[in-house]
């Protein structure tokens, strides 16, 4: 079974945690690291990794230290694909048959695995930014958000995906759909991560 991007991110984080501290993280550590309120969410990911024999648990349910020095090539192999092009989106262009380079999708899409997660989009508030319901967005945590960036925000305790705006020193959120109003915090506005890419399957 190939891991999902989120499962691979969790597994890599556990490996880095063990390498630095000499023991495995608890579910509370993982929930805090991935900014998840419920430990049940990370428990499901850990249990999936245990079922697929990427992790083990001791009798008390604690994650056993995995052998991070000799990882399985099959489990950790990055996806490398040939890059052709460019291809014209207008008039037809002469065929170029030789690949320009090999691209590792992991490195191309993700800057820091331990600080990156995926979210599935629900709703149509960001369609004018090319983000549609069902899309996956790649989100980088702990990155300093800047005005005009698309962010995962916590507005008065609720998560939302919007563009971060600033006017007269005050931050607010803007949808990319004229049917939705601008959103201002009544109490607090926090940014949980900055969107770096969008993934869509056809």
Commentary on this structure:
- There is one protein chain.
- The protein has 202 residues and is of the alpha+beta class.
- The chain has 2 domains: 5-69, Winged helix-like DNA-binding domain superfamily/Winged helix DNA-binding domain (Arc Repressor Mutant, subunit A, Orthogonal Bundle); 113-199, Umud Fragment, subunit A.
- Helices cover 23% and strands 25% of the residues.
- It has helices spanning 5-21, 27-33, 39-51, 73-76, 105-109; strands spanning 80-83, 101-104, 116-120, 136-140, 150-155, 158-167, 170-174, 189-199.
- It has a 6-stranded antiparallel beta sheet with strand order 3-4-8-5-6-7, covered by helices on one side. Strands 1-2 form a two-stranded antiparallel sheet.
- β6 (158-167) and β7 (170-174) form a beta hairpin.
- α1 (5-21) packs across α3.
- It is globular and about 55 Å long.
- It starts with a helix and ends with a strand.
- Residues 68-76 have low confidence and may be disordered.
Which key features would you list for this structure?
single chain, 202 residues, alpha+beta, Arc Repressor Mutant, subunit A, Umud Fragment, subunit A, six-stranded antiparallel sheet, two-stranded antiparallel ribbon
Order of helices and strands: HHHHEEHEEEEEE
* CATH architecture term of the largest domain: Ribbon
Q: Give helix % range.
A: 10-25%
CATH class of the largest domain: Mainly Beta
Choose one word for the global shape. Answer: globular
């Amino acid at each position: 079974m190939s891991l999902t991007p989120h499962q691979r991110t969790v597994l890599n984080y556990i490996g880095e945690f063990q390498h630095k501290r000499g023991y495995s993280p608890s579910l509370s550590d993982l929930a805090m690291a991935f900014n998840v309120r419920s430990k049940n969410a990370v428990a499901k990911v850990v249990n999936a990794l245990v079922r697929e024999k990427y992790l083990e648990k001791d009798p008390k349910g604690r994650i056993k230290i995995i052998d991070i020095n000799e990882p399985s090539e099959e489990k950790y192999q990055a996806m490398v694909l040939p890059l052709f092009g460019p291809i014209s989106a207008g008039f037809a262009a002469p065929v170029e048959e030789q690949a320009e380079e090999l691209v590792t999708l992991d490195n191309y899409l993700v800057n820091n695995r331990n600080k990156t997660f995926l979210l599935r989009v629900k709703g149509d508030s960001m369609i004018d930014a090319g983000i549609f319901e069902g899309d996956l967005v790649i989100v980088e945590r702990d990155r300093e958000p800047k005005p005009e960036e698309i962010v995962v925000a916590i507005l008065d305790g609720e998560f939302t995906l919007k563009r971060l705006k600033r006017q007269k020193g005050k931050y607010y959120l803007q949808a990319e759909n004229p049917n939705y109003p601008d959103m201002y915090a009544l109490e607090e506005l926090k940014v949980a991560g900055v969107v770096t890419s969008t993934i869509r399957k056809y």
